[in-house]
Each structure stands twice: as C-alpha cells, then as structure tokens.
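Run log, item B.
One chain of 604 residues. Sequence copied directly from the ordering sheet:
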Amino acid sequence: MLPGSADGLRRGRFLYLPVVPGRLEFAEHARRLILTERPDLVAVELPVTLEGAYRRALERLPELSVIVYEDGRQDRAVYVPVEVTDPFVEALRTAGEIGAPVVFVDPDAGERPHLDEDYPDTYAAQRLGIEAYVQAYRRHRPGRAPGTTAFAEGIAWKLQGTDPRARVLVVVGLNVVDAVLEAMERPHAQPLRHVKRAGLKTLNLHPECLAEALTEYPFLQAAYEKARPAGDPAPARTDRQRAQFRLYAEAEAEYEKNTGEKIAVWQRRLWARYTRNLALTQRQLVAGLFDLTVAARSLVDDNFAWELWQKANAYPFQKAASDLMTVHVSGEEMWLQTKRILLRRRLPRKKARLRPVGLRGRKKEDYPGEWKLSPGRWTLCSYPPEDLVIENYGNFLKKKGKSILSEERARVEPFTTSLLDGVDLRETIRNWQQGKIWVRAFRKISGEVGAVVLIFDEDRQGRYDYCMTWLGEHQNESDMSFYATDPASHPVGPGIGRAEYGGLLLSLPPLRMTDVWTDSDYAFAESKPERLLLAALDYSLEKLVVYVAARPPRSIFRSIAGRLGRQIVYLPIGQLSPVALKKVRVLHVLDGHDRRAIARDHIW
C-alpha cells in the first residue's frame, strides 16, 4: 500500500487521516472518509481546553464563529476561527451526523507545531489526489519543527486512553502524523497541561470582516457549504479554480451594473494569466484572494477590485445579529505578516460615496422623463471638453501607429563608422561572442496618418445601437462617425444623455464626411467596425490609417487599402492603457448648443 493511502495509515483499530488545517480539499476528504468508514470514535487534533467552545460554535454552523482566549505569556488574546472548510471542524460535524462520539486529543501541553508550517498548495491534492499529495509531503518534508515530538507524545497518550474496542479515526495534522505514529509504539505518562484557558469566549464574526478573518475566503466557503449534502458519502467537489471564475463573473456583472462599463475579453484573459503568475511567484498553483484583488485592480480599475473583494466577502449564512457577542476584527489582529491594498472607489452613486455633510448632491429629475432628449428641438451636439480628450487621444494613436511601423522596418547592422539611431543592446548581447557592437537604423516612413479607427467592442450582441456621424466645428476638430449605447436611456441632465462608445472613426480635415451608416458604398461591410474601417480608407487624405481593435481586420481589407493607395497600421488594443481608454470611452450627447452652458453641472 502507498504510505499516503487510507490503508497505509491504518494501525490496528486506528485509522489516521493526515490533513492540512483550514483547507477546503482536506475538509472534503475528511467528510468523505468518515461517511465511508463509519468509525466508532472520531479523534481530532484540537485542544481539549477548547472543547466546550468548539461545541458551542458547532451548534451555530453554518454561521461562523471565532474562539478567543487569553495568552498570559504574551499578554495578548488568541483568535481561533471556526470555519466550515477546516478539516477538523468538518470531522466534528460529520461525526455528529453519523452519531460517532468525538474526543479532542490535543492535551494542550504546549504550542501547536503545525501553525507555522508551510504546506504546498493544497489544490494539488485535488488534481493529483489526497493520497499522492500526502505521500509526496511525507517523503520530501524537511526536519521536524521544535516541540513536535513532545506534542505527538501528548496526542498518543490521549489516543491510548480511548476505548480499546472502538474503531478510531484520527484526524491529525499532516506535519505531525509521522511523529504520532512513532509515539504510538510506546506508552506515555500524562503530560503537564493546561486545565482550562482564561478568558475563553465564543464570539460571532461580523459579516463585513470575514474575508480578513478566515483562512479560506467566504465566497469559497459558501460554495463548499452549498455543495455539502447531508449524509452523502460522495459529496460534490468544490473546485477552487472554478470557484474563482464564478467569483470573477459575479464581480464583473456587479461592476457593469454599477458603473455602466464593460470588461473586455482580453482583460479576462490577462487577469487569469496574471493571477497564475502571482501564484507562481509564491510557489502556489492557485492565487489567493489578495492576489486576485491586486490583479483586478491592475487590469481593470479600483472599482472592479472593490466589487471582487465584496463578492469574495459574501457569505449568505452569516448575520450581524446573534445571541453571541458580534465582533469586527481585522486581518492584522488575527494574522502575522498581513498585506495591505488600498482601493479608491470612483462610482457615480450617491450611496457608495462618502461625502462631507452639507456637500451639494447631484441634481435629479423632478419627475420621470423631465430630462428626456429632444432631438428636434435644436441640433444634437457634443460636450467640448470631451472633444478635446478624444482629439488628443487620436493624435496619440497617430504617433504610436507611425512609431510601430518605423520599428517594424528598422535595420540592424554591426557598428562601423556611425552609431546611426543608437546601439541595439538586444542584438549586441545576442552576438556577444563576435565581439561587435550592433546599431539600429530606423527607416523614414513616407506619408502621414489620415484617419484613426478605435474599436472598443465589435458589438456581436447588438448592444451599441446608436450610430451617428458628426462634423467637426472648426479646423482642428475631426469629423467623427461612431456607434454607441443609446444616450436617451441614461439621462444625466436636462437634454443631456450619457453613452458609451463601441467604436469610432476620426478623420481630418473636417466638414467632408457624410453619414457613414446609410452610405451604400459600405454595404460590403459585415459589421460596424468594418464599416468604419471602409469609411476611414475612403475619407483619408493621407497614406496611413491606424486601426485599433482586439483583432486585426480581415485580409481582404489589406487588398482594398492597396487599391486605394492606403496602408492599414494595426495596433492591438491590449497594448494601450486601460485607464486612458476608459477616459475616452464615455461621451455625452446634448440636444442643443445652449445645453453646453449647464452641462458641467450634470456631467461626471
């Protein structure tokens, strides 16, 4: 038998179940094994002095508790969270379901040596199997921590005093199981131990502090609790990685609802890759909640990181009101070496913003429909400060497109008489064995950029049904054609509607563009981005057209551009700053030029 298998850890009437404290995968395994083996007695490696507090906390499950007692030597309190994903707690719960007596086998004679143990990521146990994980750990584990032998002898003393006719399942920490097996080979005297703990209390955790106070984050514990059918020897497994994807999806839906902004597919993909890399830097397989939040803030913004943290902190079984005292504790009070992350929310919601008393709030409609857009009143127009932002960003994209084209056509050669445009360090290091310095020469790009197409969303689901073509109001303002969400569905002021670009086209000089969306010359286009690209090629007076999108255009557009004497410069949108893109994506539509005088009081 394998050393990590159940039969490999059976010693007479004792069956040893090594676990990693506080981890979901071992809680599932403990429940499955107890329901399958049906032992006469379940022994758990928990301090006997905390038995009464644990039993009180078990009565409240799935509501979570924290056990607090005084530590006189260090003059501070000790916090012990009672979690549904802790294998010791799960062993107690499942033993109660099958009617098996429970014994606490830690005599509380000293420090528990597994508290500071650094275990491999327990997600490997789900992928490889518990037996393989246990076997690998026992085979490659370094030397024992100080005090492990004395701790194991105390457990052995308790186990040797159990009913000699009972079949006992022993739930013990993975790092002490070998020491316990050795200690069981010889008799032991009763160790000196604590009779009781001073200041022992069982408290109710406030729902808002669960993410900081628990070992596994609340969203994962809730998923485990919901998948835990009573009495089922083969309960549904809770996959940690799949739970993270569900967490992301729920946070994304809440983010879109609160901000009106949509997360792109490339951001989801990068979030998954970034969290994987963060986990690998800490020698883990799956990222923890802190790293998930860091990745959300880095790849989207603080608002999305906040929504993800709030969803991760959601545990529907927990209540603030309880028959026990409710406490609100922070991670710094319960754990050592905690990390901090600062999230600055920027939401256009009154309830979500902390404001000084007396600060004037945003204006609202006196009655529904008061601010409805009236296109026939005057003429639709834009908000000038937003025009400046979009024009500046269009100029930035023109420069970036030319620079990318220049780099693609750069020539690298060994240094002879001139440094040309500078030393190419990469090529110099690559050919270091030749003893030469390599220099780079950028070829001059003929022509300028005449139009820019920026595609945020290809609109495969028909979300952006507001299609317009606007003419520039002066010589430095581009003609623009765009598709966006309907501004009439989101009024923010009298005759002022808020919308979100799906894609846009900028072309100079102004006052030349007819309505792109009704032009029959572009009927060939299969989508809105393709129609904008055809118009850009058609209206551009310069050779180059910059196309920014998640995917490059179809190859036929290269041929069309060549026949028109144009060249498409493709720029992946993933190379651009998400923060900058967010600033240019929102637009406001005004139903008359006179609205510009009051627009600043309503636009946020």
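Observations after the first pass:
- The chain has 20 helices and 19 strands.
- The two ends are 68 Å apart (CA to CA).
Flagged for discussion on Thursday.
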